[in-house]
Design goal:
- The complex is a heterodimer of chains A (421) and B (252).
- Chain A is mainly alpha-helical and 421 residues long.
- In chain A, 68% of the residues lie in helices and 5% in strands.
- Chain A has 17 helices and 6 strands.
- In chain A, the strands form 3 sheets. Chain A has a two-stranded antiparallel ribbon with strand order 1-6. In chain A, strands 2-3 form a two-stranded antiparallel ribbon. In chain A, strands 4-5 form a two-stranded antiparallel ribbon.
- In chain A, helix 3 runs parallel beside helix 8.
- By secondary structure, chain B is α/β, with parallel strands linked by helices.
- Helices cover 37% and strands 25% of the residues of chain B.
- Chain B is built from 9 helices and 10 strands.
- In chain B, helix 3 packs parallel to helix 5.
- Classes of the chains: A mainly alpha (421), B alpha/beta (252).
- At the A-B interface, helix 1, helix 2, helix 8, helix 9 and helix 10 of A face helix 2, helix 3 and helix 4 of B.
- Chain B: This is Amino acid/amide ABC transporter ATP-binding protein 1 (HAAT family).
- Chain B: GO terms for molecular function: ATP binding; ATP hydrolysis activity.
- Chain B: Pfam families: ABC_tran.
Chain lengths: 421, 252
């Protein structure tokens, strides 16, 4: 059959090749853009001079940027499961949590170097996913979601109660001076800090230029590098035969079975990969701030990653990262706008009106940031079911259509002019 | 030589005896039709071949090996493909992707973690999928979403997906159900072409006598879960028992 096809279809191959090249180019462009954005994030996220009133909206400080990258990794991993196979896990926070615990244990027992911590966190995340996935994937749809939720809550409650020797219960797992740290030797004086071969995670250089000030921290760039790695891997998976099979699982499991494919190992593999991403994210959280608490495994944390993925665009490459960024931005920036700041903004208005305006805006900012986020989420789900990425695509299509129409108008005019002459 | 041997299978659903003591032997490289009125047990019988149902008693063997107790994907890997009454395709994928899934399944088996290869670089798979699409004259639709195809095209695509795996036995469950006469004739033509060009046995369940008599080499008439007659089409046409079961009292 092979020989026949090769002689009979010489025409198709160039076409397929062109399509392949175009897609490969687009993917490389996307990776490059994300790399540049990640590299320049400390500058891009600080668009307002430090002294200006709008400095409130600057997000370019290390702590928040690290969160963008870490939750980006979590959402990318979640998207490999949910976006491709359609299995909605409601227990991903469990993997995040065990990742954090494993990383802190690594810091306590082995070394303050982040590499072993991150590796162990990823592996443990994967192992937990293997066990939880093996049981949960016996069911699909809502039952699968409930099973994963049950497992995550189980982990959360165990960490609070029975497993206190490992998790240190309510206090959370922390470093202490008496930890062995086999490779580093005993520490004296103050608690040691996490590092990458001597470069401390909290180390940062601040550059001040004009009114702007930018902070470049080691911790952020470690997170950004891993985000890029995670993103590249996800592109590879999306374009691989394995990715195609995962989309086939989502589309029609019946046809899948009658095509000689076993859906279970495919979904389990996706679940484990996704759990490893979550473990990595948890390990990174602990690497940036070496403590781990059970709160990280609560169901609200599992729900958050679902929101991120859907808000950005489930099943798209860039969507989850975008969604994670938007949600973390709201959580950290919008929540800091209090009434005093609002009064400052609308100070130009007459007193009575000023109070009224502040009263209207008040529920949406500060502690009410969830409300704004909820409204945005609803708007996106209703009007842009494909998430923010679909919004960008639609906007892009409108712009392109305008571009295409423009030259034709010109050529029409030229033709008319020529006719008139 | 018979490729599919069905021995004494019975299946009961609660109070309903869906199949009782069915014996069928399908010879290799023939088209065997199973006909019968609604509720005769045709689909139940087919489901017993593919691992969807397990009969209460009896045996089903394909090429000398029992299929009972195997999962649908294992049975498919043995060389049995199935076309459904309503086309079962991957509606969210493009036509070419639909074709590639069975190509990968045929090459790599039920599971392989090929997460680091790239689909477009699988040149051999692409060529195989495109050649098959061309065989059913759907190559120009390669990049369309399968969900947006017409019903006739979905049926063609599903058949192409089954054939690209080079099955030894193709099961067709009412392949022309709900089709217009022209589409039905196209499907008959397609099946005849498949028949002519490939080494393949077909078991076909069908209501439309026109289809059955234009394709089948042998016909089994099923009524109330029991085979009534099994014979060549010429003898089935005028068989009094068949008329009685199939057409009831009405004489044509």
């Amino acid at each position: 059959m092979t020989d026949a096809t090769q002689t009979a279809f010489p025409a198709q191959t160039p076409r397929a090749e062109a399509a392949r090249d175009a897609q490969g180019r687009r993917d490389r462009m996307l990776l490059l853009i994300v790399a540049l954005l990640a590299l320049a994030a400390p500058i891009l996220l600080n668009p307002f001079p430090t002294a200006s009133a709008l400095a409130q909206f600057n997000a370019g400080y290390p702590d928040l940027m690290q969160r963008f990258a870490i939750y980006g990794i979590l959402a990318i991993g979640f998207n490999i499961l949910f976006g491709l196979t359609g299995y909605l896990s409601f227990g991903h926070a469990a993997f995040l949590g065990v990742g954090s615990y494993s990383a802190v244990w690594m810091f306590k027992l082995l070394s303050m170097n982040v590499i072993p911590a991150i590796l162990l966190a990823t592996v443990i995340g994967g192992l937990f996913a293997l066990v939880i996935g093996f049981v949960s994937l016996r069911r699909s749809g809502i039952y699968f979601s409930i099973l994963t939720l049950a497992f995550a809550q189980m982990c959360y409650n165990l960490a609070y109660s029975v497993l206190t020797p490992i998790s240190n219960g309510e206090t959370g797992l922390q470093l202490s001076l008496s930890d062995p740290r086999v490779l580093d030797g005993p520490s004296s004086g103050s608690l040691p800090v996490t590092s990458l071969f001597g470069a401390e995670m909290r180390e940062a250089a601040t550059i001040t230029l004009g009114g702007w000030s930018w902070t470049f921290s080691v911790g952020y760039y470690v997170c950004a590098a891993l985000l890029l790695l995670a993103f590249w891997l996800s592109i590879r998976i999306f374009r691989s035969p394995f990715g195609l099979m995962l989309r086939a699982v989502k589309s029609n499991q019946n046809r899948m079975a009658y095509t000689g494919l076993s859906a279970r190992p495919y979904t389990l593999a996706a679940f484990v990969i996704s759990g490893m991403y979550a473990g990595l994210a948890g390990g990174l959280l602990a690497s940036m701030d070496p403590l781990a608490g059970a709160d990280r495994m609560q169901w609200t944390a599992s729900g958050e990653v679902v929101l991120m993925t859907i808000l950005g665009g489930a099943g798209t490459l860039l969507g989850p990262v975008l969604g994670a960024g938007v949600i973390k931005y709201f959580e950290n920036i919008f929540s800091k706008i209090n009434d005093a700041i609002l009064h400052q903004w609308v100070a130009v208005l007459p007193d009575g009106l000023e109070d009224a305006v502040v009263a209207v805006i008040h529920p949406f900012v500060g502690k009410g940031w969830h409300l704004t986020l909820g409204l945005i989420f609803m708007a996106v789900v209703i009007f842009l079911p494909g998430g923010l990425v679909e919004g960008a695509r639609r906007a892009g299509a409108v712009v392109r259509r305008r571009d295409r129409n423009a030259p034709s108008v010109e050529s029409d005019a030229a033709a008319r002019r020529a006719a008139a002459e | 030589m018979s490729i599919l041997e069905v021995r004494d299978i019975s299946k009961r659903f609660g109070g309903l005896q869906a199949l009782s003591d069915v014996n069928i032997s399908v010879a290799e490289n023939t088209v065997h039709a199973i006909i019968g009125p609604n509720g005769a047990g045709k689909s139940t019988l087919l489901n017993c071949f593919v691992g969807k149902l397990i009969p209460d008693t009896g045996s089903v063997s394909f090429d000398g090996q029992s299929v009972l107790g195997r999962k649908p994907h294992q049975i498919n890997q043995m060389g049995i493909s199935r076309v459904f009454q309503t086309p079962e395709i991957f509606a969210d994928l493009t036509v070419i992707e639909n074709m590639m899934v069975p190509c990968f399944a045929h090459r790599d088996g039920p599971f392989r973690l090929h997460a680091f290869e790239s689909v477009p670089k699988e040149r051999h798979i692409t060529e195989m999928a495109e050649a098959m699409l061309d065989d059913v004259s759907m190559l120009e639709k390669r990049d369309l979403h399968a969900g947006s195809l017409s019903r006739g095209d979905k049926r063609r695509l599903e058949m192409a997906m089954c054939l690209v795996q080079e099955p030894r036995l193709l099961l067709l469950d009412e392949p022309t159900a709900g089709m217009a006469r022209a589409d039905t004739n196209n499907t008959i033509q397609l099946l005849k072409d498949i028949r002519r060009t490939r080494n393949l046995t077909m078991v076909i369940i069908e209501h439309d006598m026109h289809v059955v008599f234009s394709l089948a080499d042998r016909i089994t008439v099923l009524a109330q879960g029991t085979p009534l007659v099994e014979d060549v089409p010429e003898n089935i046409k005028g068989h009094p028992k068949v008329r009685e079961a199939y057409l009831g009292e009405a004489q044509v």
